[in-house]
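Worked problem 6 (solution included).
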Amino acid sequence: MTPEQDPLDSLFDPRSVAVVGASANPEKWGYWLASGALAGRGRRAVHLVNRRGGALDGVPFLPDLGALPSAPEQVVVAVPPPQVRAVVAEGLAAGARCFTVITSGGADAEAEQALASLIRGHGARLLGPNCMGVVDTTSDLRLSWGDFPAGQFGLVSQSGNLALEIGRLLARAGQGFSRFVSLGNQRDIDATDALLALVRHEPTRVIAAYVEDFRDGRRLGRALAAAHAAGKPVLLLTVGGSAASGRAAASHTGALVSARATVAAVCRDAGAVLLDTAGEVVDVAACLLAARGRAASHPAAGNRAAGAARVGAAAPPRRAAADTGPSHPPASRPRTAILADSGGQGALAADACAARGLDVPPFSAATAATVAAHLPPGAGCANPVDLAGAGEADLATYAQLTRALLTSGEADAVILTGYFGDYATANPAQAARETEVARELADAATASGRLLLVHTMARDTPALAVLRQRGVPVYERIEQAATALSGLARVRTAQLRPPLPTPPPSPHRAPDGDYETTRDLLCSYGLTFPAAEFVHTADEAAAAALRVGYPLALKAMGLAHKTEAGGVALGLADESALRGAFARMTAATGAHRYAVEAMATPPYAVELIAGVRRDPAFGPVLMAGIGGVRAELLADTALALAPLTPDHARDLLLSLRHAPLLTGWRGAPPVDLDAAAAALCALARAAAEHPELTDIEINPLLVHPGGAVALDAAAVLGQSSLRAPRLRAQCVEHQPDDQE
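Solution. The predicted structure is:
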């Protein structure tokens, strides 16, 4: 491969293609693959193989790959599963460099892995098995079922039918595909490989992906960040929104970290946009393509967009503990101007925008006066603008007001919502004039360099066709327009934080996940716990209390949720209270081991929960949130891949809904955010260096103006973990006025 060649050129732009299993029957896959391949024969050699003979479009079917006049660079395999391996072996012998296997590659996963190993062993690549093929409209390669309109949209998908749905929606929106890759079972070429190929592909401007199996999730996260850095953000669809796995019984962390929440965190930190439906993908893609077009035609707008995309690229300076501001400037919400045919539509549009994080600010007196000059007396001149029939009286009003709002300097985008585009339906005589105004609207958007979105009750009319052709997104429902604009805002305000390298495993393995050994482990990473001793009897507890000091806490060991089980007693002031609590706790829990621990009651403290759960695809995932006994009730959490930087940890805390509790609520002093962030980083590194732990959790982590102290901890050990000597570390009693 020369330096200029793409590693997947054999997949997307092969010099020759052979379709094995070609058919002349339009009802069969072999027909679509063969006819699609023949559509590109002006660019490459195309060979059709079917041992039964026949022909398609004047091209005869050859009996096998050995009968080809030259080596095929890519072989498309559409034969019954039992024949796949033989066809692949034949193709390798003929010199093929890439195989797209439509059918299943074997009876089970092991057989498919063996097929992939065979192909890779010869230096070739495999797409599939069990995939729908590949399309590259820029290289005239169409090796799939269905129609794929040409455009600038690249798609990677594990679902073939979803790709067909997206194709229909793209065509309706006046958009199309640059490339489509059906991943199938990902035995070799996976989602990350395909995404990186789309990043390298200049004609692809927007990328979408539907992924169920993330394989190496951290590698995928780095690919998402690379796409964003290249100006090609990824719109991601996935599954996994269900609640926690069975580990929820062992830790709060398991209940608060779902698969989808992990993917959402990776997308946030990689500049990708996680969406819910195929329709949302197309809506946001149309908006992104329009914004890119505006930036290309108006350099000033392009510079603004590029500047927004670079927010957070440089690490901010570290702040003092008393500084309660965020560690980066808060992402400004895009200012949206709404121009509506009625007050009701304008109000609903404003609500839809606000619900999606967009700002609909009031206009200045000057802009309101400019708007009023085009409207009848009494019309709404604020934001949203109520046309109050002015558009019906003169269609030119739509263009005049849209231009005024786009150039006002008070809006980053304008949404025109209502009836425009449908006048010709009711009155064909207005078709020419409405189409002319549509051109004026597009001209205004292009000249301003700002984004115009149109929501209309019409569907396919001449005026809407003009808007789509000129790169103005058109939507049938106002929530589509608001979602699209919100997706664009998320892309432009993203702060890239690709996954940090995972540190090598520690040579000291955790022997178990009980409180004593977990706190020993965490103390060795710099976390602070109150002084404690571990006992078995009431007499041992009384003796330990003299050394620890009253008041103190008594905790029963071996319980997943101590409070609910009656396994925690706090504020015990003397030996009598301690012995009474010990007796009650023994009767309630049957525990055989207890912790006698000093009380930590610093003023103005806030309880957090912090945990790390090991995800099979993404590795250790840190969760931080509002903690204590209300952790699962409030479910106010933020996630990030572990390990992470202190600035990232700080920003996670500030992203919580209850973050004002940390920054000074109702006159309380702010907590030490730097100490809280350092505690999160220490926990994250401990988990990353101890892969034998599937979960590790601190609840609560008490953060206060003087620092942070962990009051309880637990871990879940994986089944394959090995026993090792316990880690011991000195844990000192926490004092309220300490400055850790």
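Discussion: Residues 531-598 form a domain with the Dna Ligase; domain 1 fold (CATH 3.30.1490.20).
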